[in-house]
Each structure stands twice: as structure tokens, then as C-alpha cells.
Amino acid sequence: MAKPNPHRPFTPDPAQMECAPDISGNTVNGLGESEFRRPSIVYWSPDPDDIPHGGLQRWFYTVNPDEPAIVAQRAERQKILDAPLPDLAGRRSERTPEQWNDALQQYVTAGLCEQVGATPLDRDWLFEGQDTPFANIIIVGVQHDFETISAAPEPSAGAEVMRQYSRAAFAAKAIAGWLRRAGWDADPVTGPMAGKITLIPPALACGFGELGKHGSLITPEMGASFRLSAVLTDAPFLATSSKEHGIDSFCANCRVCEDACPPEAIFSEKQTVRGETKWYVDFDKCLPFFNQTHGCAICIAACPWSKPGIGLNLAEKLARRDKRISGEGGEA
Ligand code: SF4
Ligand code: SF4
Fold it and tell me: How far does residue 146's CA lie from ligand 1's centre (Å)?
């Protein structure tokens, strides 16, 4: 049974709903489709006029437009996006794939981001109609400040999301600049308007944990409380492998995010989406609340994996339990 929720019942602002298109966002996403197809951009399009939900995307920016923390973060992000990339050097630095990965860690060590990974690019991850000449993708993860994101759906939490999108963009541009100075062309992909490619599948492929019931990634290190950016390149990075931590089965027995979600947008069961069975959030139910609250983030803050110090212990506990069940751990 659902727990009491201070934000229910939620009634969307009629002015917002006037901007809604006739087509369901779940239809755009391919909910219920049994055949694979590439994803279509449903939201955060670089040009809102290119997508049916562009009117709602524009409406997002009308909510508390003068909120100081949000104004400041928007200005900061724009500065980062506008900064030019360095010229591509004429001579390529050569390193082994292992050395490229080791060198990439400098951005984690320097505190520009919390996690990086790399994987060959699967063109099925590109949005419909998009292409890129690059063969590899680097994924960058930046973690929210837990206390600040826990204020969701207050505007301060929305500002924290923007702050982390800015950090993610800064890190992606720094990595792309480093590669270009080393003679390897690179294209930074910054959220939320990633435009070219959906970032969750490559993040899963290169070791950023598992997809949670709330439709966001979960890693033991950062929980669900982080943002992504990426860099497309041909520099020969070593693929970092995908990792499972028992999160998927944990979600099957947890309903914290379902109870926390004001518009009840989180499905209890996995759904079929473009030929894949996976956790999925009802886009049409989530978006109005998301828009009215500067990006919501309640579900990722409420997720037990997001609490500092919990994820790694939980992953270890689940690994020990799985070993016991499979008989590998010997007698307890
Ligand atoms: S709150 Fe529970 S069910 Fe939801 S994503 Fe987190 S672990 Fe999974
Ligand atoms: S972001 Fe969407 S799915 Fe998550 S709690 Fe908010 S409304 Fe629900």
C-alpha cells in the first residue's frame, strides 16, 4: 500500500497543460513497442520546435524565472557552453589504451567529476536521425550534494541539478580539450540537451551501475544522485566493463521511489520499451510535476542508494548474500 505523500494529490497547472501536445510522451519513447528502434528525443531538445513536447520544454523556463540560485546557475552553465574548444593539434600523442584510461583518471583526481568510463560507441544509442564519425564514448559522472538535493522539490534542489549539469559540461569540455590538444578530435556531449545520443545505455555499458526502478542509473558510489555528460572521440581508450551489484533485484522488492513520487509516475513492474524490458517512468505523469518544480528529483533523493555511505555497504551485503545463495561462500 502506498505511503502518505505530502505532495499528493498533484494537480498540474492548467496553463502548463495548455502547452501539452496531442501525442503521449510514452508513445514517443516507444512504450509497449516490441521491436527495437533508435530512441527519439522526447524532451530537452536543443531546439524545442523540433519535438512535440517543445511547448512544455519552453514552459519549464517560465517557472520562477527570477529565482536567484537558478538564474546564477543558468548563467554559469551558458558561460561553460560558450567557451571555445582548443584547436586540434597536428600531431597525435600515442598511448596504449591502458595509459589513456589511467590519464583520464586525472579528471576524477582533480575533482572535476566523480566517475569516468569508456566504451566503444554502439550506434543504436544515437537518437533517430543523428550520426557521429567517432568510434568511442567516454562517460563522465558528477554527484549532487546530498543535503541540497534532498530539499527536492524546492528550487534549491533544482539549482543543484543545474550546478551539476554545469560541472558535467565543464568536465566534458576539459576532457575534449585535452584530447584535441593531444591531436585526437573529440566532441563533448553535455546534458540535459544531449541532442545526439542517449547517455544511459553507454553509461551502463561502461560500468555506471544499473538502471533503477525510478528510471535513473544507480551506482554503489553515488547512488542515483548524479548527472552525466560524455565525450565522443577516436582516441583508443580501453573499454571499462559493465557491472552488476544486485540493484535490479533490490528494486523489485523496494517501493520507496514509487511512494515518494507525487504524480505516481513510477511503474511497479518493468515495461517493454522499443524491444527492451526495463524499468520505466510514465513520462506523461512525471513531466507536469517535474516542470512545475524546477526538475523535481524527489525520486533520486529518496532512493536508499543515494544516501551517503550506504551504496557501497549495500552492494557488499548483496554480493555476500548472492555468494551464500549460490553456495560459493561456504558455511556462514
Ligand atoms: S527507491 Fe528503491 S525501488 Fe526505487 S530505484 Fe531506489 S532502490 Fe530501486
Ligand atoms: S522526477 Fe518524475 S518520477 Fe521522479 S519523483 Fe519527480 S515526478 Fe516522480
Answer: 16
Percent of the chain with pLDDT over 90: 92
Amino acid present at 305: W
Report how far residue 219's alpha carbon sits from residue 198's, in angstroms, rounded to the nearest whole number: 18
- Ligand 1 atom 7 nearest Cα: 251
Q: Is the CB of 251 under 6 A from ligand 1?
A: yes
Rounded Cα distance, 307 and 126, in Å: 32
Residue nearest to ligand 1 atom 6, measured at CA: 303
**Quick check: CB of 157 below 6 Å from ligand 2?**
no
Query: In the 8-state DSSP scheme, what is residue 239?
Result: P
pLDDT digits (tens, 9 = 90+) for 264-284: 999 999 999 999 999 999 999
Cβ atoms 3, 243 nearer than 8 A = no
Segment 205-253, tens digit of pLDDT: 999 999 999 999 999 999 999 999 999 999 999 999 999 999 999 999 9
306 close to 224: Cβ distance less than 8 angstroms: yes
**Residue ranges covered by each domain of the chain:** 14-81+96-326
- Residue 227 near residue 144 (C-beta atoms within 8 A): yes
